[in-house]
């Protein structure tokens, strides 16, 4: 979003790149809702429930909006003078969903988390250390800080400090001088490409997990709520802010619409997914053994070929596909050593066997808290329902369109 130029005598107009609207700066019509309108009133009520939006899905929303901005930037470069990319139709459901996401976006918090992790990687690279295994990451918006919950306690590394009351918890405040504000950081490999948000804790803080550490995430319980969580995870991973392009393989039909609107995602039969991921794991394990290290986390800060350690996630929503006899990669993920970067999200009933060490989350129908395996942290799981998921797919589809339309300003504006 940014100002373009003045119109008339001293009148200043602004243009929103995502919504395609102009306004005079006194109000923002892109985010206004009319409480007298029945549909707007429902939208307002939805936005007043923060657990439905920013608390549970803040990182997801930030990822989707960032991907839309990236796509619109490419589209604008293709547009003819005086024209703009095609946008969602005003008043349409996807456009209203986009407005809702704008109203609760938290890009600053996500960028803060990325900067803290980048500085951590830089420090470890300089000191010869390795990235810690994480059971959870907690992101607070107000006040803004991040906590890393380590699988094994160890001394903190800048920009993080130790929590004196909780061994194994590192903390970084957004106001910390250790973040080196104003300094442009050197490019570093994404340290945790498998980071994904699950929901929020009892204090309203967003809770993320590292799928690479988890290995196998098993979603069970209520079928509908499980599917909504699965769709949220798939959408966030497909547009993630924590990796440039995280390869995804979909087994089963749920959320496969993403394969048509994001790069590096494919729909595969179970046996092909198993074969591909096992081949990737074999290459990575051979490389780890040649380097004399035992995990990708150890390699990322130091290897000259960081792309070698980009993870791959297989998402399975098919009882037969999630059966261990059909998808041996579920066993391989945990049983083989050294570890590879692959991970699995499986939406399957309780009766489907899972490997030892898999994390199981029971998606109950009563919005009950679940306890994360390992840390025991209580988390209320977020969701992306079928309507919201369809709107995101439509927005991403429009983002890939090559069609342009007349813009709100002339091709040759007055100087």
Care to describe what's here?
This protein has 415 residues and is of the alpha/beta class. The protein is 33% helix and 20% strand. The protein contains 11 helices and 19 strands.
Decide which structural class fits the backbone. alpha/beta
Taken from the alpha-carbon principal axes, the silhouette is globular
Question: Rg to the nearest angstrom?
Answer: 22 Å
Q: Estimate percent helicity.
A: 25-40%
Q: What is the terminal separation in angstroms?
A: 21 Å
Short recap of the structure:
The protein has helices spanning 38-47, 54-78, 93-103, 107-127, 211-214, 223-238, 270-291, 296-299, 319-322, 329-335, 386-399, and strands spanning 2-7, 11-15, 22-23, 83-85, 134-140, 145-150, 161-162, 169-173, 195-200, 206-210, 216-221, 248-252, 265-267, 313-317, 343-347, 359-363, 370-371, 378-381, 404-406. With 415 residues, the chain is α/β, with parallel strands linked by helices. Helix 2 packs across helix 6 (223-238) and helix 2 (54-78) runs parallel beside helix 11.
How do the strands and helices of this protein lay out in sequence?
Blueprint lengths: L1 E6 L3 E5 L6 E2 L14 H10 L6 H25 L4 E3 L7 H11 L3 H21 L6 E7 L4 E6 L10 E2 L6 E5 L21 E6 L5 E5 H4 L1 E6 L1 H16 L9 E5 L12 E3 L2 H22 L4 H4 L13 E5 L1 H4 L6 H7 L7 E5 L11 E5 L6 E2 L6 E4 L4 H14 L4 E3 L9
Parallel strand pairs: 11-15, 11-16, 12-13, 12-14, 14-15
Antiparallel strand pairs: 1-2, 2-3, 4-19, 5-6, 5-10, 6-8, 7-8, 9-10, 9-18, 17-18
Helix pairs in contact: 2-6, 2-11, 3-11
Key words describing this protein structure:
single chain; 415 residues; alpha/beta; 8-stranded antiparallel beta sheet; 6-stranded parallel beta sheet; 11 helices; 19 strands; 33% helix
């Amino acid at each position: 979003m940014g100002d373009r130029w003045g119109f008339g005598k001293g009148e200043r107009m602004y243009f929103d790149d995502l919504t395609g609207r102009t306004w005079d700066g006194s109000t923002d019509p892109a985010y206004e809702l009319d409480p007298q309108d029945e549909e707007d009133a429902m939208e307002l009520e939805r936005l007043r429930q923060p657990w439905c939006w920013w608390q549970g899905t803040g990182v997801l929303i930030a990822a989707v909006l960032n991907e839309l901005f990236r796509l619109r930037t490419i589209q604008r470069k293709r547009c003819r003078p005086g024209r703009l990319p095609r946008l969602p139709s005003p008043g349409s459901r996807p456009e209203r969903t986009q407005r809702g996401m704008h109203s609760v976006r938290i890009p600053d918090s996500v960028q803060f988390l990325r900067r803290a992790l980048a500085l951590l990687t830089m420090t470890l690279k300089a000191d010869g250390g390795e990235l810690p295994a994480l059971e959870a990451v907690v992101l607070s918006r107000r006040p803004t800080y991040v906590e890393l919950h380590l699988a094994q306690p160890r001394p903190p590394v800048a920009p993080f400090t130790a929590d004196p009351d909780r061994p194994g918890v590192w903390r970084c405040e957004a106001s910390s001088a250790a973040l080196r504000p104003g300094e442009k950081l050197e490019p570093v490999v994404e340290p945790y490409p498998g980071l994904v948000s699950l929901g929020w804790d009892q204090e309203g803080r967003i809770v993320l997990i590292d799928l690479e550490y988890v290995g196998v995430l098993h979603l069970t319980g209520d079928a509908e709520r499980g599917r909504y969580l699965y769709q949220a995870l798939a959408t966030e991973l497909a547009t993630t802010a924590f990796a440039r392009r995280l390869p995804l393989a979909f087994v089963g039909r749920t959320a496969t619409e993403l394969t048509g609107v994001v790069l590096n995602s494919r729909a595969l039969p179970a046996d092909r997914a198993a074969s591909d991921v096992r081949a990737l794991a074999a290459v990575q394990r051979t490389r780890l053994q040649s380097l004399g290290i035992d995990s990708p986390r150890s390699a990322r800060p130091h290897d000259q070929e960081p792309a070698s350690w980009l993870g791959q996630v297989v998402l399975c929503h098919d009882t037969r596909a999630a059966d261990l006899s059909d998808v041996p990669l579920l066993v391989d993920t945990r049983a083989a050593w050294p570890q590879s970067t692959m991970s699995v999200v499986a939406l399957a009933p309780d009766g489907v066997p899972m490997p030892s060490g898999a994390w199981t989350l029971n998606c109950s129908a009563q919005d009950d808290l679940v306890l994360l395996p390992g840390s025991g942290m209580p988390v209320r799981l977020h969701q992306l329902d079928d309507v919201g998921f369809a709107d995101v797919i439509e927005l991403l589809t429009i983002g890939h369109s090559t069609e342009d339309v007349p813009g709100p300003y002339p091709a040759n504006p007055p100087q």
